[in-house]
Amino acid sequence: MRNVMRYIIFALMVALTLPLQAQKGVRENVRKGNKAYRQQKFSEAFTFYSDALGENPSSPEANYNAGNTLYRQKEWDKSAESYQQYLSIEKENPKRISAAWHNIGNALLQKKELEKSMEAYKMALRINPEDDETRYNLAVVQKMIQDQEQEQEEQQQQQQQEEQQQPDQQNNPDQPKKPEESPEPEQMSRDNARQLLQAIEQDERETQEKVNKIKAEERKNKADENRRRNRDW
Fold first, then answer.
1. Which domain does 29 fall in, by range?
2. Alpha carbon separation from 115 to 8, 77, 107, 121, 181 (Å, rounded)
3. Residues 49 and 73 in one domain
4. What pLDDT score was predicted for residue 165?
């Protein structure tokens, strides 16, 4: 009976000790990750945060800080996923929750997903209306959306004008057209110029050889004719 009681007590002690050791390991990895992050060793910091999450996937600090390191490494999608994981865990820190939404907005803005970015900033301001930085980012992304819509509208108007002009040109075939611009001559490279010069020189040599051959034949014919005349005379 005593042995059974000792075994039960030992099992309880082990059961209580293991979570404490795991929690200690999480804190240690988060601490190392924070140190590496301050030194801007973001890849190394992410490794420590990942080790912490391997021991406790529900660690709010490890998830949030992992999102920060991924953002610094321009891993926008993975960064937003880490912040979303943090938001699914954290329920008691409004400022940090607002900051997570703010960071999600930044990641989406980097991906040019303006509408989603705007909604993330709005979520951050609902939780922390006094966050001036988020309010500024929201104004920036709203201006970007407005400019984008205006540009699309101008493009549509231009396309409609071009479509309206096409039937007019078809109905007036005699309308003078703009002369086609001739392409500018390509500049000759040194190698091409050298090859062209060599070809010209080769042609000149061949021509000179032909001329010399003709002259030689003429001189020979003239000499033969003189000899014949001398013999006849």
1. 25-83
2. 58, 16, 12, 10, 44
3. yes
4. 79
**Total residue count of the chain as it appears in this document:** 233
Instruction: For residue range 76-130, list pLDDT tens digits in order.
Output: 999 999 999 999 999 999 999 999 999 999 999 999 999 999 999 999 999 999 9
The domain tally of the chain equals 2
Q: What are the pLDDT digits (tens) for 38-47?
A: 999 999 999 9
Q: What is the pTM of this model?
A: 0.62
104 occurs within a structural domain: yes
Residue 170 lies in a domain: no
How far CA 185 is from CA of 58, 89, 110, 150, 190, in Å, comes to 68, 68, 44, 41, 15
Sequence-distant (6+) residues with CB within 8 A of 115 are: 145
Q: Are 112 and 142 in contact (CB under 8 A)?
A: no
